[in-house]
Design brief:
Layout (H helix, E strand, L loop, with lengths): L1 E5 L2 E5 L1 H9 L16 E4 L6 E7 L2 E6 L4 E6 H9 L2 H4 L10 E2 L5 E5 L2 E5 L5 E4 L1
């Protein structure tokens, strides 16, 4: 567990979110940077699933409460998920996997109601 200071403000990261953040490389990992929020909790409107997440400079680490699992979301998939409503209201629901390598250098993330993935042409598809 650790408090992090970002822009003169400290944020507390702990539990499953802290462990996932450390497992994926912490602030030195490809795109994560430092936390920019404390834990945020809520319920996804379309699915009714509860969540807890911490926002980092490069994405979020989210606890899918019904699944008892913690997942990371970053990059183009995080942008698409956020723009579709994010944890609180995306029709995709909550993540059920980390962002994973997929076909021909693309990436994919599974959600309760489908998936979000990138294409070889650089686009992002929300299939939920």
């Amino acid at each position: 567990m650790s408090p992090y200071v970002w822009d003169s403000v400290a944020f507390w990261v702990h539990g499953g979110i802290w462990q996932k953040y450390i497992d994926i490389g912490g602030p030195q990992a490809c795109c994560w940077g430092y936390p920019v929020s404390n834990e945020i909790s809520g319920t996804n409107g379309p699915t009714g699933s509860d969540f807890i997440y911490t926002w980092f400079e490069g994405g979020i680490v989210l606890v899918n409460v019904p699944a008892f699992a913690t997942y990371e979301t970053h990059g183009a998939i995080w942008s698409a998920y956020f723009n579709s409503g994010g944890p609180g209201s995306s029709r995709c629901g909550l993540p059920t996997s980390d962002v994973l390598p997929w076909i021909s250098g693309t990436i994919i993330q599974a959600y309760e109601e489908g998936a979000i993935y990138t294409t070889t042409g650089g686009g992002t598809v929300i299939d939920c």
